[in-house]
Amino acid sequence: MHQTERAIFDLRRGVAVVIDDDTGSETARAPSVLVQPVEGLPDEELAGFSGHRSARLVITRHRLRSLGVNTRAEAASLPLRPTASAVSAGIVLQAACADAPLDRELFAEPQPATVTERAALALMRRALLIPAALTVRLNDRQRRAIQTQIDRGELLTVPARAAEHCFELAAGLLKRVSEARVPLNDVAESRFVLFREPDGLREHVAVVIGHPEQWPDAVPVRMHSACLTGDLFGSLRCDCGEQLRSGVRTIEEMGGGVLLYLAQEGRGIGLANKLRAYTLQDQGHDTVDADQILGFGEDERHYCVAVDMLAALNIRKVRLLTNNPSKLRALAQGGIEVAGREKLYGQVTDENRRYLTAKASRSGHLLEEVLDAAK
Ligand SMILES: Nc1nc2c(ncn2[C@@H]2O[C@H](COP(=O)(O)OP(=O)(O)OP(=O)(O)O)[C@@H](O)[C@H]2O)c(=O)[nH]1
Ligand SMILES: [Zn+2]
């Protein structure tokens, strides 16, 4: 696990890492790969990579779909053609995440990604980078050539299995770090309890409202994914800020409970990518298609952390404030009894109508009632 965390930091600062296949038998292993994130790729690094005959661009199935290629494979790798030696970092970035067709002169047919290449994309997602990497499949000679850098600690190696499952490593290991009484405008009695994931990368807050011994049998709970633009600045693009405040008030009115403020900005893709997605939306794409162009699925959130937070607060039965059926399913799968659901609407405005309509029609959010009323 430590290798994985350190690799994520290296990738975020644009430093390449090596991923080795530790799955399956020794004779059937995928080649090790040298991995460089496409995001923030300097042209000098690219020159080193595109000089390799086995250099590839690895992208997700979502990205491929946005390029008009349907595949069952989770990810694909596209060999750089030999003629691509003069390729620029901008062109690679465009192939990875722009609203533009793929340049077939530069990239050969997509092939299903190997386990090491899939692991590379898992690390990119965890690092909140665009999920696209330049890789070189290393042969034995190339692997030996970089061994000195590895031995000196200049180049990290990560086992594929740990990298591929880096989102699951936190399960059951969440740390309850600190807490304090924080009275809010609408709620006199509330405590903020901070939890940290074991790799130290993300922190989540449980806002405990009222007195736990007086809570209803099914505890009112809101799982709220962070939205800096909406929650803090009142962005008109979404209804998050309103949902956050009315969520807190409703929990108080229901006799107290918990609001989990989850570090899942942009449905789990991070603020940098959400801003990229907004720009694509301004070019005419809806919220789902914009994320797909960037290589993300329609919702990249994992809720095992929320399950762990509820367990740490001794909550086993909830009434969930949400319009999102996948949150209900995630809690039930995590062993929490979901006794009911409370709808939680923000206002439909001219600015957020398109966003809310796409959530209802494409992602199955239960918003028809409020959208119909606002027609
Ligand atoms: N990727 C992406 N994320 C967005 C966009 N607009 C808002 N978000 C994020 O979407 C998430 C919304 O979180 P929630 O309100 O908790 O969840 P929800 O899925 O809408 O479900 P409920 O509010 O519980 O019904 C936040 O993380 C926002 O940052 C967008 O256009 N693109
Ligand atoms: Zn929002």
UniProtKB/TrEMBL annotation:
UniProt keyword Transport present: no
Biological processes, Gene Ontology terms: riboflavin biosynthetic process
Enzyme class: hydrolase
GO MF term set: GTP binding; GTP cyclohydrolase II activity; zinc ion binding
Biological pathway: Cofactor biosynthesis; riboflavin biosynthesis; 5-amino-6-(D-ribitylamino)uracil from GTP: step 1/4
CDD domains linked to this entry: GTP_cyclohydro2 (cd00641)
Keywords of this entry: GTP-binding, Hydrolase, Metal-binding, Nucleotide-binding, Riboflavin biosynthesis, Zinc
Residues covered by the GTP cyclohydrolase II domain: 176-341
Role summary: Catalyzes the conversion of GTP to 2,5-diamino-6-ribosylamino-4(3H)-pyrimidinone 5'-phosphate (DARP), formate and pyrophosphate.
Homology family: In the N-terminal section; belongs to the DHBP synthase family. Belongs to the GTP cyclohydrolase II family.
Record-linked NCBIfam families: PRK00393.1 (NF001591)
Name of this chain's protein: GTP cyclohydrolase-2
UniProt source species: Wenzhouxiangella limi
Gene name, Swiss-Prot/TrEMBL: ribA
